[in-house]
Amino acid sequence: MDLKSEDYKEIEFDDDINYTSDISEIDNHSEFNESEKTYESFEINNGVKKPNRLKRFLLDLIFYAVIIFSCVYIIPNFVLQRTIVEGKSMENTLSDGDHLYVEKISYRLGLLKRFDIIVFYPYGRDHEDYYVKRIIGLPGETVQIIDGKIYINGEVLEENYGKEPILDPGRAVQPITLADDEYFVLGDNRNISKDSRYPNVGNVKKENIGGKAFFRVSPLNKFGPID
């Protein structure tokens, strides 16, 4: 059965009404979204979300405080420190005014070896005076100097760090047996060095060691690891 023209127009008109209704629903939904955004903006502006910003700020503040504390206190006291050589007792290896980096881990872990260069406090940590010397005798060993030669446990120590032959053996003219926490140290410039040969320095206790010198940063023409 054919539709009359009037019926066709009526159908078209009805479709338009339905379409217009759909558009209205979309517009209403958009208005709802805008309302949500407006409410969210109201929340932010009125401090509802400000605690999150405050939390992030506090976390950042704690993070940077930890970094500053590590740089100012932990690293210099327990890891790494810069030291300046004073005097000529370590020539020709080190010179007066050399700037060194000293690491503070080896001696704590018992990793110091013969011929390592250490920084120590001859009069205890309560005094600011420190010396830079080379380890010759290790804990438990017996050290003696005879005719300019160093003996460890009765055997001649083969080494070439000394600038000159030793003229004064000091207290090492007699055998010196080191305790389990003691080291015997000498300066490389041995005839002017104040070291374990003399009673005012004596054997170096582990508790008085400040660290192991391992790197020279100044002067620049000697920049690099030290031996």
Low-pLDDT regions: 1-33, 35-45
Q: Give the CA-based shape.
A: elongated
Q: In the CATH scheme, what's the topology name of the largest domain?
A: Umud Fragment, subunit A
Class inferred from helices and paired strands = alpha+beta
Mean pLDDT: 80
How many helices? The count is: 2
How far is the N terminus from the C terminus?
Answer: 111 Å
SSE run: HHEEEEEEEEEEEE
- How many strand elements? 12
User: What's the story with the biggest beta sheet?
Assistant: 8 strands, antiparallel
- Under CATH at level 1, the class of the largest domain stands as Mainly Beta
- What value does the Rg take, in angstroms? 40 Å
Helix content: 25-40%
Secondary-structure arrangement, i.e. CATH architecture of the largest domain? Ribbon
**Strand share of the residues?**
15-25%
Q: How many structural units, i.e. domains? A: 2
Question: CATH superfamily membership of the largest domain, which one?
Answer: Umud Fragment, subunit A
Describe the fold and architecture.
This protein folds into 2 domains: 5-76; 82-225, Umud Fragment, subunit A (Ribbon). Helices cover 31% and strands 23% of the residues. A hairpin with a 2-residue loop joins strand 5 (142-146) and strand 6. The protein is an alpha+beta fold. It has helices at residues 5-45, 50-79, and strands spanning 80-84, 99-103, 117-120, 131-137, 142-146, 149-152, 155-156, 176-177, 182-186, 204-205, 209-218, 224-225. Mean pLDDT is 80; it is low at 1-33 and 35-45. The strands form 2 sheets. Strands 1, 2, 3, 4, 9, 10, 11 and 12 form an 8-stranded antiparallel beta sheet that branches. Strands 7-6-5-8 form a 4-stranded antiparallel beta sheet, with no helix packed on it. The chain is built from 2 helices and 12 strands. The longest helix has 41 residues, at 5-45. Its main location: membrane. Residues 61-217 form the Peptidase S26 domain. InterPro entries: LexA/Signal_pep-like_sf (IPR036286), Pept_S26A_signal_pept_1 (IPR000223), Pept_S26A_signal_pept_1_CS (IPR019758), Pept_S26A_signal_pept_1_Lys-AS (IPR019757), Peptidase_S26 (IPR019533).
